[in-house]
Write a structure and sequence with these properties.
Elements lengths: L4 E5 L4 H12 L3 E6 L13 E4 L5 H11 L3 E4 L6 H4 L3 H22 L4 E7 L22 H20 L2 E7 L2 E2 L8 H13 L21 E3 L5 E2 L2 E2 H13 L5 E4 L5 E2 H11 L8 E3 L17 H7 L7 H23 L12
Parallel strand pairs: 1-2, 1-4, 2-3, 4-5, 5-6, 6-11, 7-10, 8-13
Antiparallel strand pairs: 9-12
Length: 348
């Protein structure tokens, strides 16, 4: 039986790392696309990397026609809602039109290829439903959410019109030790780790350009915002199950639980024996005017249809992130103590 050839677009991020690892473990031949060649630690040696802009139609056409994949996992995106306000056109192109172009290119080159599109709970906006599922009304509140909704709908349209095996995963917040520091979850884990190591100020900065930890405190926005936090490693397993299922469809991917930013802080700082209230403050300037205040996934469909369930609990997720940041800070300090050492700090 021939090996499955998988193509992962937008592969240099958190999800790409866990997905590529999973695909390799399952015996797939893996091709990956990113805008820049990734660090060698990102499965670079055993993966075929293709460097280019997915919004460049000629590049995307050449990529798909040369690889001729059996499966495509489209993770390429402007990755944060707040960033989409600064580049709404690019967000529309990458988050919205690239998925449509992939469908067109599959019709042209390989209509039998199976496609997974990474959708987002941001398509729901700030609705009144206590939980969100595949039938929840979509009222996105940012260019990011609007573009993701377009992609979500167009995938369904191509599936119905042409019979493509094209599916979407409506993913709720999913975190890991590989989250960039620009995300609030990693920022909290980093601050807790820094405090545990006796630091009162850090070189890493927040969106205001100020140290994440200053005078032993970090500043956050609205601490009451509640999110459905899951582990990225669990979510890529859901992606694979969706692609392998006999029929294409749309699925909500989440844990079914919600936790506030305050709870995340409490859990992170408790792990290092500190009270979060002594190290976290709320800064009104960091509160987003437009934001989804409550997300919680109704995962009944994916649980019943694909028998998928998250394995990593909330407290385990926070623990692994804090411990990873402790190792990161300690490793960097050790490297700095050896000025002649040959080292590279991996962007996390």
């Amino acid at each position: 039986m021939p090996l499955i050839k998988a193509l992962v677009t937008g592969a240099s991020g958190q999800d790409g790392f866990y997905l590529i690892d999973l695909l390799h473990r399952q015996g797939c031949i893996v091709h990956a696309q990113s805008r820049r060649l990734p660090h060698p630690g990102l499965h670079r040696d055993e993966t075929y990397w293709h460097v280019g802009d997915p919004a460049d139609r000629d590049f995307l056409d050449s990529l798909i026609s040369s690889v001729m994949p059996d499966e495509i996992y489209n993770l390429a995106a402007v990755s944060r809602p707040i960033l989409s306000w600064g580049s709404p056109r690019e967000t529309a192109e990458v988050n919205g039109f690239v998925p449509q172009e992939i469908c067109e290119l599959l019709l042209k080159h390989k209509p039998g290829c199976r496609l997974f599109q990474a959708s987002s709970s941001e398509i729901f906006g700030d609705g009144t439903d206590r939980v969100q599922n595949e039938q929840t009304a979509c009222v996105p509140k940012s260019p990011y959410g609007a573009a993701k909704l377009y992609a979500h709908r167009i995938i369904g349209a191509y599936r119905a019109q042409y019979g493509l095996h094209a599916s979407t995963g409506i993913m709720f917040n999913h975190e890991s030790p590989r989250r960039p520091l620009s995300f609030v979850s990693q920022k909290i884990a980093y601050a807790a780790a820094a405090v545990s190591l006796g630091l009162t100020e850090t070189s890493e900065t927040d969106e205001r350009g100020r140290p994440i930890l200053l005078d032993g405190k970090m500043a956050l926005g609205d601490l009451s915002v509640r999110r459905d936090f899951g582990f990225a490693g669990d979510y890529v397993e859901a992606m694979r199950l969706i692609v392998q299922h006999r029929t294409a469809d749309d699925y909500v991917i989440g844990t079914g639980e919600d936790h506030s930013i305050e709870e995340f802080c409490d859990q992170a700082f408790s792990l290092v024996g500190r009270k979060w209230t002594e190290h976290v403050s709320s800064d009104p300037s960091l509160i987003r005017r437009v934001d989804s205040h409550y997300t919680r996934a109704d995962t009944a469909k994916i649980r019943s249809s694909l028998n998928w369930r998250p394995k990593v609990a909330f407290n385990e997720l926070v623990s692994m992130m804090v411990k990873a940041q402790i190792d990161f800070i300690q490793g960097r300090a050790s490297a700095r103590a050896k000025p002649d050492a040959d080292y590279r700090i991996v962007e996390r």
